[in-house]
Design a protein that fits this description.
- With 884 residues, this protein is an alpha+beta fold.
- It folds into four domains: 1-224, Calcium-transporting ATPase, cytoplasmic transduction domain A (Distorted Sandwich); 232-301 and 676-882, Up-down Bundle (Calcium-transporting ATPase, transmembrane domain), CATH 1.20.1110; 306-332 and 535-667, 3-Layer(aba) Sandwich (Rossmann fold), CATH 3.40.50; 337-532, Calcium-transporting ATPase, cytoplasmic domain N (3-Layer(aba) Sandwich).
- Strands 10, 11, 12, 13, 16, 17, 18, 19, 20, 21 and 22 form an eleven-stranded mixed sheet that branches. The protein has an eight-stranded mixed sheet with strand order 8-28-27-26-9-23-25-24, with helices on both faces.
- The longest helix is centred in the C-terminal third of the chain and has 41 residues, at 669-709.
- The termini are far apart.
- Bound molecules: adenosine-5'-triphosphate (ATP).
- Adenosine-5'-triphosphate binds next to α13, β17, β18 and β21.
């Protein structure tokens, strides 16, 4: 017998579990040991050896190795071995860089891993989906991915989209009854939920019957091919730039070799020098360092509670000019407390804070109790038409489920109403809440078998559906003045920044069809709740800081316009002349009309997720780079369309998380701002080390080229060239990737996404500094050499030292857009350490006698150092005076 053919209790028996209690931890442990993790077999990893070997794949490195081999055969053992060791060390550095990048990407994947809601030992909890085992009782709701193959045990309008499995994109309605037919295909097994399919509507529970590769998806996955590794636009741009740089470097090197040979140097000597120069000058490590910088930045973001799902998002983050954010939960705490109740045309005040059931209800100064007409009924219905539960952990109250629902439970407790009262009502049908419908309804039967409907939702949605209103004397037809009085109450609540919710009911005959579109019409309006959802403390300053950074913050909410306006004012988000648009106005506007005003709009109220797409498009057409948040399944299209899709780590659904490029672990607006600033910083750091590496290379080529053109001896020998490349390009460049932002990074305004790598003066900085570094090294050579062949080794040592020192000083210049004097050089500890270790390596090569013959060096005296340092500071300091 197949799972879909079994009754739920048979499934329970087979898997030794009950849907009331779930599995015990012990059972879970045992089964996990038996069956392994609930994961599809992932792709094969590239072996470490391959990654290591890849470091030597580069064409010029291969040529260098071949040339070294020839040198070795000709008897130049010392040079040959030295070159090979340097190339090896370079390869090892590259290997570690790549490993590090890969590890942090893995860590990211882990952090973004999906979670499932599971019942274990009688309590609902969230666990990583990969920890599920057969027999686990799981709950899914709209926007989730089904975490494993499940036999549905309860379905409330549960629909799933199974195109990943069947190719069919229309959602399939699920139920819980057994199906007797045999040999059914997956799409006909409508009481089963399949791993990785998406819940598009409703909610339900089920028992896990298959995990990992034993799911229907697993069978398909075993046939599927691996996913490709993608590169970010910047990595791509740099790879392109790399090709040009290689061509230029090769050309210049060829020129050096030709000039050298023309001036009488031996072909062999010039060839080895040329190849070494090419290896040094080609920034082969650039893409790898960029990846490292991106992933290190990503790790810093994780510390600030933002998980980047796509590396490319880091670059785009720095360009963001608008943040469109949900209000509830992102700008506010999502901790609702009922503060006011409106019924019988009277407003009652509710005291108490948060989810603690401490507080009372007053009509003006007088405390009221359950006997206040309709109050008990209103609160009772609020408890029954409800999906949340109130929990206590270590004396701390929290809500499991929707905070709006939670607030209703807390309010009822303030009237000493026990949640057990809910058990007197049997729920026959539930129409869940979603942001589109803006309401939730249940059909219930009481102890006397009387049926009725309870509906709660946005007042503007419920009011037009209410034909009656309840007052002290019972039910009566809704009159115009009733309606006006309710509307006034809504406005009053909203102006106090309260979130409004209406509740109504309707008696039903036994035979009323439950799927009729009329079901939620002709309601009897009972009352209104006004809830407080306090703004998050840190959001106000985050909005101000964003504004200063040239980023506009926009609030998008399903709440009432006045509520939204009041909260936006509290947060200083809405300027005096700022506009508020609501869903109805948005509907009436064409995209062009919206474009015309959108720069003045700060708040969108009473909108549905569909509107978000229009908002994103209008902003984008106005030239903005838009970051857009979302949590529900319907938000996914807008998140996808935006430049930076942001989802909520805590309250978000799997589908939005998958569509997004950034996940906020704490659902907090302030985190978006930090991530954007961090994104800017990462990009700036990448610019810093591009500037550093390229200027160094220009200097290296220039000193060689000019010396050859001027008919001088080689100012540097091949090992020295390679050594310069190793000590200056490795650690200091990496440390620049860890640099702190320059003070004005936050004030610079968003970057133009179209700007090239060399924009904002970078090209000039590279050429000017590179040129000066080359000239400084050549001057050092000329001053030391003075045409005396006996001084050659001494002069080469001086040139070598000047080149290294000039670059190590220049690295501090690269930290600022302004000048080397603009920043405290000791601020970046890593850089100071990297530079000190490079200097140490330099000193070892110059002063340790066993290394002197290998590196063709000789010890330098104090006067030599004065010359070296004097020349080395010029390239960086010269421009320091000319700028602000
Ligand atoms: P956001 O600010 O994140 O867009 P929101 O909470 O303001 O979200 P929705 O969740 O779409 O917007 O809620 C819109 C309205 O629907 C609320 O103002 C409230 O009147 C009503 N509502 C919210 N939650 C529920 C619920 N659980 N049951 C019934 N009605 C609800």
């Amino acid at each position: 017998m197949k799972w879909y053919q079994m009754d739920v209790d048979v499934v329970e028996q087979k898997l030794h579990v009950t849907t009331k209690q779930g599995l015990s931890d012990k059972q879970v442990d045992k089964r996990r040991r038996q069956d392994g993790e609930n994961r599809l077999a992932s792709e094969e990893r590239t072996s470490r050896w391959l990654i290591f070997l890849k470091q030597f794949q580069d064409f010029m490195v291969l040529v260098l190795l071949a040339a070294t081999l020839i040198a070795g055969m000709l008897g130049e053992y010392v040079d040959a071995i030295a070159i090979i060791i340097i190339v090896l060390v370079n390869g090892i550095l590259g290997y570690f860089q790549e490993q590090r990048a890969e590890k942090s990407l893995d860590k990211l994947k882990e952090m973004a891993a999906p979670v499932a809601t599971v019942l274990r030992d009688g309590t609902w909890q969230k666990v990583l989906s990969q920890d599920l085992v057969a027999g686990d009782v799981v709950r899914v709701s709209s926007g989730d991915r089904v975490p494993a193959d499940i036999r549905v045990t309860q379905a409330n309008h549960l629909e799933t989209e199974e195109s990943a499995l069947t190719g069919e994109s229309l959602p399939v309605m699920k139920h819980a009854s057994p199906i007797s037919k045999d040999q059914l295909e997956a799409q006909d097994q409508v009481n089963m939920g399949f791993m990785n399919t998406i819940v598009t509507r409703g909610n339900g529970t089920g028992i896990v019957v298959g995990t990992g590769m034993r799911t229907v998806m697993g069978q398909i996955a075993s046939l599927m091919t691996q996913t490709k590794k993608t590169t970010t636009p910047l990595e791509h741009k740099l790879a392109e730039l790399g090709k040009i740089l290689i061509a230029v470097a090769l050309l210049l090197t060829a020129l050096v070799v030709l000039a050298g040979v023309y001036q009488g140097h031996s072909v062999y000597n010039m060839f080895l020098a040329g190849v070494s120069l090419a290896v040094a000058a080609i920034p082969e490590g650039l893409p790898a360092i960029v990846t490292v910088a991106l992933s290190l930045g990503v790790q810093r973001m994780i510390k600030k509670k933002a998980i980047v799902r796509k590396l490319s998002a880091v670059e785009t983050l720095g360009c963001a000019s608008v943040i469109c954010s949900d209000k509830t939960g992102t700008m506010t705490e999502n901790k609702m407390t009922v503060k006011e109740v409106f019924l019988n045309h009277k407003t009652l005040d509710v005291t108490g804070e948060g989810y603690k059931a401490k507080g009372d209800i007053y009509l003006e100064q007088d405390k009221v109790d359950r006997n206040f007409p309709n109050l008990e009924q209103m609160f009772l219905y609020g408890m029954v038409c409800n999906n949340a539960s109130l929990m206590v952990k270590k004396g701390h109250y929290y809500v499991d489920g929707d905070p709006t629902d939670g607030a209703l439970l807390v309010a009822a407790r303030k009237l000493d109403m026990s949640h057990q009262l809910q058990d007197n009502y049997r729920i026959i049908r539930e129409m869940p809440f979603d942001s589109e419908r803006k309401r939730m309804s249940v059909v219930v039967e009481d102890d006397n078998k009387m049926r009725f409907l309870i509906t709660k939702g946005a007042p503007e949605v419920l009011l037009p559906r209410s034909a009656y209103v309840m007052n002290e004397h019972g039910r009566k037809q809704m009159q115009r003045d009733d309606q006006q009085s309710i509307e006034r109450a809504i406005d009053n609540m909203a102006e106090k920044a309260l979130r409004t919710l209406a509740i109504g009911m309707k008696p039903l005959a036994k035979n009323t069809p439950l799927d009729s579109v009329e079901l939620e019409n002709d309601l009897s309006f009972i009352g209104l709740y006004g809830m407080m959802d306090p703004p998050r403390q840190e959001v106000k300053s985050a909005i101000a800081e964003s504004r200063e950074a040239g980023i506009k913050s926009v609030m998008i909410t399903g709440d009432h316009e006045k509520t939204a306006r009041a909260i936006a004012r509290e947060l200083n988000l809405l300027p005096e002349d700022g506009m508020v648009l609501d869903g109805a106005q948005l509907n009436a506007m064409s995209i062009e009309e919206l474009r015309d005003v959108i720069d003045q709009v700060y708040v969108f109220a009473r909108v549905t997720p569909e509107h978000k797409l229009k908002i994103v498009e209008a902003f984008q057409e106005e030239g903005h780079i838009v970051a857009m948040t979302g949590d529900g399944v319907n938000d996914a299209p807008a998140i996808k369309a935006s430049d930076i899709g942001i989802s909520m780590g805590y309250s978000g659904t799997d589908v939005t998380k998958e569509a997004s490029s950034l996940i906020l672990m704490d659902d907090n607006f302030a985190t978006i701002k930090s991530a954007i600033i961090e994104g800017r910083n990462i990009y700036e750091n990448i610019r810093k080390f591009i500037r550093y590496l390229l200027a160094s290379n220009v200097g290296e080529i220039l000193v060689m080229l000019l010396a050859m053109l001027l008919a001088m001896p080689l100012p540097l020998v091949p090992v020295q060239i390679l050594w310069v490349n190793l000590v200056t390009d490795g650690l200091p460049a990496m440390a620049l990737g860890l640099d702190q932002p320059e003070n004005d990074v936050t004030r610079r305004g968003p970057r133009n996404p179209k700007e090239g790598i060399f924009a904002r003066g970078l090209g000039f900085q590279v050429i000017s500094r590179g040129f000066l570094i080359g000239i400084a090294a050549l001057t050092a050579f000329m001053m030391a050499f003075q045409g005396d062949p006996d001084q050659l080794i001494y002069a080469q040592t001086i040139t070598f030292t000047t080149l290294v020192m000039a670059q190590l000083i220049h690295v501090f210049d690269c930290r600022s857009e302004h000048s080397i004097f603009a920043r405290n050089p000791f601020e970046n500890r890593f850089l100071v350490l990297a530079v000190l270790s490079s200097i140490l390596l330099l000193l070892v090569v110059i002063y340790w006698s066993p290394l002197q013959p290998i590196f063709h060096t000789t010890a330098l005296g104090v006067r030599d150092w004065v010359l070296v340092l004097g020349l080395s500071v010029i390239p960086s300091v010269l421009f320091g005076f000319s700028k602000k």
